[in-house]
Structures are given as structure tokens and as C-alpha cells.
Model the fold of this input.
Amino acid sequence: MHKHARHTIAGVALLSATAFAASASAETFFFKYGHTPVYTAFDSDVEDSDISANTFDFGVHLNEDFRMGVYYERLDGEGAANEDIRGLTAEYDLVGGVGFATSVGMMFGQAAADATATDIYGRFALDTGDTSEMFAKVAYRGTNAGGWDDFGDDAGDDPDDLDGLYLNVGFGFGF
Done:
């Protein structure tokens, strides 16, 4: 099967599952945008100050506490190095109060055929309105070794992986 056909079939299946979940649930869709100003990679070949990212989450609340969605991240590094990570997220609300909520989640993503990333994170959110929030996400990222060879400044010090911790701050809203 061709690569484009697999992507098309996977996209249609994901959209169908999201539409079914939305019709079966009285809850709403969500959208989140975040920026990663702090990324601390464990590989010594990575300059932490040179890594930043912009993230987008879009999905559906399956019930009061659980939501799933699609994930996109534009990861920028040294020089002109960048990667686009696309994946799926699942998140569960732990504790919520008046204007404050905490949740835990996972993201499974892929940047290239040989470059994968998995995040385990905690999100802390403050309500800014009836359907909007500001958040901070602290995450551990695990990546496969060898898949990130092109993510560097071509000075021979490209990282083997991008395992590390990061802070992502942003806003979100439901509709």
C-alpha cells in the first residue's frame, strides 16, 4: 500500500471515530495552542536554549473527565533544523475546582518514518471564561534513538534522540 494511501485511510478512520464520539457524547470539542519556551534534552549534543516548539491540540470530550484528540507540533532547533510531529493525545482530568483543573495525559507521535516521540505529561489549567483556559504543561518526552540524526546544525554533533523534559504554556477553548 502506498504511503499516501495509508495516511488517507488513517485520517478517514480518525475523523470517523471523532465524529462518532462527538455524536455519542453531550460534551464539546476542544482546541489548545501552546508554546514551548523551555526544553531540557538529556543528550549532551543538544543545546537546550536552541529548542522551542509550537503545539496544537484538537479533539473531543468523550465524557466529563476524558478527552482524545489529534496533535501537531512544530519543533525548531539549532540553525534551520525543524521537525513536524503529528500524533494522538489522550488526557484525563484528575482534580478540578472553581477556576482550576489538573490533568494527566499521553501523546504518541511521529515526525518521520524513523523518528517517533511519546510524551507523558501533567497539565495545570486556570479558567479564563466559561469555555476558555490558560494552561501550563510539564512533560517528559521519550524518543527513539537514531531517528533524530537530521535535527541539528550539521556540525557533526546531531543528537541521537530528543529525550528530555519540557514546559509548554498556552491557551485553549471549547466549543
Notes: Strands lie at 29-41, 52-61, 66-76, 82-97, 100-112, 115-127, 132-143, 164-174. The chain has a mean pLDDT of 83. The first helix runs from residue 3 to 24.
